[in-house]
Amino acid sequence: MLLVRMRPPGLFAMLFAFFSALCAAQVTTRFTVTGTVVNSATDEPIRRALVSVGAAMVLTGADGRFQAENVPQGPAMVAAQKPGYFDCAYSGCSNGSPARATINVQSGTNDVLLKLLPESKIEGRVVDDQGEPIGDVQVQIQGEHILNGQKQINTDGSAATDENGTYRVENLLPGTYTVRTMARPAFWSDAGTESNPQVYPQRYFPNTPDAASAQALDLKPGQVANADFILTPAKAFRITGSITPAVPSLSLNVQDADWVQINAATEFDPKSGKFSLSFIPAGIWNLEFTYNQADGYNLYATETVTVDSHDVKGLRIALQPLPSVPVNIVNGPAEIQVESMEPRSNGRIFGAIGPLDTADGPRVIPGLPPGNYRVVVPSSGDRCVGSLTSGNIDLTREDLIVAAGSQPQPINATLRDDCASLQVAVRSPNQNAQASVLLISASRSFRPVSTQIDSSASYVFTGLRPGEYQVYALSSIDGLEYANPEAMRDYSGQQITLAPNQRASITLDVIARGAR
After folding, report:
1. CB contact at 8 A, 436 and 450
2. Using one digit for the tens of pLDDT, what is the confidence trace for 333-346?
3. DSSP 3-state assignment of 485?
4. Are the beta carbons of 470 and 494 closer than 8 angstroms?
5. Helices (H), 4-53
6. What mean pLDDT comes out for the span 201-208?
7. What are the distances in angstroms from CA 351 to CA 323, 334, 336, 380, 404?
8. What is the 8-class DSSP label of residue 60?
9. Burial of 154 (0-12, 13-18, 19+ CB in 10 A)
């Protein structure tokens, strides 16, 4: 006899309801996200821009509109991109809004406006004094940039002229640029000959021999600027000589009176120690010789040479070890930064990190070329600079000077733990705008610092060395060389003197750039 045990009918219903509810909970609500991508300079729509909405990718239509379906509910990043345009969120440009936004996808309208900044371009034509095109001329675009409040000149693009003498450099952000042609032989067949060939010398737009007399180009978003050149060939010369001691390799640089490097054909024979520089026009040139060693303790020499109507022969160059500066830190650890103040170094920073009693012993900054340097000790936690000296030089007020062939005195840094703090609040008529707060110390060992805060908000600067400070609140610091005292004379800030362990606070009215 077969017995069948029947389960209570309510159990199946309960299980069915449970799994149905579980599946329903795992179904994510999805919505549609729409928006528009426009040119930030003209507000015109951009067609065929690629837009990412979370994991989805869509293209804009002729009207700049896009639509992404089935986007999960919740936070989502929406970003646009297209060749020929910049996203200011990543490019560091001040013009236009970032081409990205974080939205909360939900029921109702999910619409977003994205802006892309159009790239600028520089183009032109290079011809000789007979109007004939010159091909294979390297054209460099040098831009002015403000980094940590200091002006720097960088090469932002380059191109070679074609057989018609034309060139075009794209992908430039709005800004100020100078254009220069690099020197090249007037006839390539002259290369390697012993006779004095001709060369097209380096020239700045518009056909000036040096950077000081160059005409800058101020590019607007999307602008195509023109820079033509007429080059006249000039007689070229050779500079030859020998190097001691013997080295297996050598870096040879030729720089003009402004320490701007020019093109030159260089040769070096490590067996004989002889070197030669070819295609050098008449003028005054700074020669720089460097042997780069793996340990950073390089050999170095400079020579200033005047070239007039004949070759320069028989130079004898003695390479010298670049001096290394010992660093002693008391009450550390701390970071020591040695920043070159020479224009040709573009703010290069050398550094040594660590306390005096590390396993490797005292820290050393190797290979400082001759020149002037500012020594900076960034704040570290609750410690700040007490004293900073090199011999009898107070480095909080003066530069470290490294002379050719001399050994600087050690850098001695003593940290203190009675640092001050400063809370800065701002007031602005525009409650929705952000303000830039600048803190500038009278001490050279403290690099100016900046932060952005919302209007009617505040920020606390900590680890401050007791002493004098100037504080500014500006609507923007874009393009402001705030590390240069001359650039800040037009703006009114508030001076404050901080005592040891002081917890000070001030409130500043935001100055609109353009207002004084």
Report:
1. yes
2. 788 889 888 876 76
3. helix
4. yes
5. 9-26
6. 93
7. 14, 11, 6, 15, 20
8. -
9. exposed
